[in-house]
Amino acid sequence: MKRKVLIILTLLFSLGAVAQTQVNEFNPGLVAGGVNYALPKTVLKVDVSAVKVVYTPGEFAKYAERYLHIGGVSTESSTAWNTTGLTIYQEGVPDTQKVFTVKLKDKTVAPMVQLTNSGVLVAVNTRTNLVENTLPPSTTTNHRLDARQYLTEDILAATSTAKMAELTAQEILDIRESKNAIKRGQVESMPQDGASLKIVLDELNLQEEALTQLFTGYTDTTFVTESFSVLPVADIDKQVLFRFSHRLGFVDADDLAGEPYYVSVEDQHTVLLPNEKEVAKRKIEGLVYNMPSMANVIISTMQHTIYERELPFAQFGTIDMLSPTLFNKGATTKLTLYPATGGIMHLEQ
To answer: Do residue 9 and residue 126 come from a single domain?
Structure first.
């Protein structure tokens, strides 16, 4: 995540009466010489890793058992998907109901205010490292080898697929015999050293594997990661987070071809919320921060629970304020907030 750091510098005039840093509710167009910032709402992020395996049969697949005694070789192409893991974390997005302005009076020691790229407050008079969560790119591992370059003239001259398969199988058996002879030292022109021996054996292994693929086929493997987000405004009970098909991979949330993965979020009410009268009487007189409430998060399928843990959510909690005297002239207060929740991570005076 990109970082935006606002350094607000003011001149140090007289050492007279101490001026305080005021924090008022955001009033666009009416506040000058201040810093606008937002507190976050908490987004639940779920990154799902999956692997796609595509099987392509060899052109001699139906002869695999007859000539090489390899059973169970499929003659049909197939595609199979499987999930390999979930990564659960949180991010903060600006809460439009919690936007404030730090207004600086004369002779105030102006703070250094660090914001995220979206304007969420994360630090005052210090800096914090913000980690940007990025999805890894999809990658494909191709396992197909070029067997054609190892086909002999006799194989290429064969007039039927069955004959080509028979001659290819014989070539594979000859390669295996050659490897065994080399390993036993029973060939006339043995490699002179270990490195040369390895080169010869590696080449024979490659030839054998390539020709065998004509019977057994090969698979290509693709690794994919998809990200899903939930911004709860109230308790969630088994909302479909995504659907996944072992044949099609990730599908739309309303596509019944995929198995549903559910998300549930239940506020544990770990923070005492103010009543309407308290909210009406509240006066913004300090730096505002969030007091998030813990919520129980469950990721599940129809068969079992995959993930369960209590996590903090800003929108289930309330706000509080730090005394403005903490940021008076001469103060050395350093404040760091959690970017995902707006709660206090570290406060140093």
So the answer is: yes
